[in-house]
Model the fold of this input.
Amino acid sequence: MKFLCTLICSLWMVNSFAQDFSVFRLPDPEVSGYTFGDFNGDDYTDIIAVDHKANNVAAVYLLTNLKESTIGFSLKSIFFNIPFTGDPIAGDMDGDGYVDVVYNNSTDNTLFLLKNDGTGTFTQTPLGVPGSIYNKAIDLDKDGDLDMVGIRNNPKQLNVYINNGALAFTATNIYSGNIGPEAFDIADFDNDGDMDILVGVNDIFNTKVFIYQNNGNGNYTVKDYPTTGSGALFNIYADDINKDGKTDILVLMSEDVKILENKGTLTFEEKKLATGDARVFVGARVVDLTGEGQPDIILSSSKGMQWYKSLSLTDYTYEPRVMNGVNSAFDINAVDFNNDGAKDAVTSNGSLFWYQNNLVQLPSSSDDFLSENTLIYPNPVTDEISFKDLRAEKYTITIYNTTGQAVLHSTVIDGKTNVATLHPGIYMITLRDANGNPAGQQKVIKL
Done:
């Protein structure tokens, strides 16, 4: 095992008066793909890093969190030169409480599981289904176990993998397009409790966005949303960018960054993010970096990493600020690595970079979630959250996971809402009144 201290990993430090983030780089090995999770059960987030080599093989490493105020990791090689293409994903796929890893086996293009024994020791297990290069894990059929969605460009596929709870998956290609999918995300766009699938493609003339609307019975209806502007699509994201309880779309193109604001009933209004002279936008993440309750945006382009501080959610006004570090980072994620309550960032582009958030965490701009006599119970929760003494009768809630992704939209009925489909973990509940106005937020623990 090789230990990497923060002095070795430091890429550079700028003066503290301009220091929103401290930037760290893993000097060795090269890292072109990664995923993250608590792989050893110590309540700190670790990283699985992948070094892709020639001939579709890769070395896989476990970076174990050192659990210090300055973010650092110890490094251990866990697999050397295994058949591997695409990016890994993390999730408790077998329901044993331990975070596993799924990847595409390059020998036969099928999915394999790195089954975790709870200590960060992994065993390779074939899943016996056709592979996808890029995958995401989520509960699509609301049965309490993790399913998956994945894409391939050649052949053109949008694969849905339904988990029966015993690591037996049924794979179905639901893609109906003639142009290969470039990027995708998963969210509940119509607020019906079912997760829909967002897909972005390039055609000759423009970028197209598709929503595969989940009908709740394993079938999907395809909705088409062409976008305006010039340049090729690089990436696409689903998130509630303006905190109105509806999932919006962030589209990254070579020349523009577009926000498709969800107006309800699967209709969207296109807006353009003011990005100055930056070009070739390849990676982003919507996340509250200051703790104010307003989503900021991390954005990577040919100019490097910047973050855009949210000034107004109504007209999408942002203040651009420099993060430094790597240029053209495709896969950006927000994680609180040192458990200090501030979202840090991680990405890779030939090396692994992480950004320790030094911003002062400000009080939320939302109203207090609870009045003096209001009670949310139980907390921790198992299946159902109850609210006592709410100040009005009609409320909706959006529940976000620790990466800032909206994982559940629901309505408070008779002072209660069901959260049985959520996996164990820490979540943030955002409450809205009948007019859609923010009424506050609070953390809950799901057992």
Observations:
- The radius of gyration is 21 Å.
- The CA atoms of residues 292 and 364 lie 4 Å apart.
- Helices lie at 6-9.
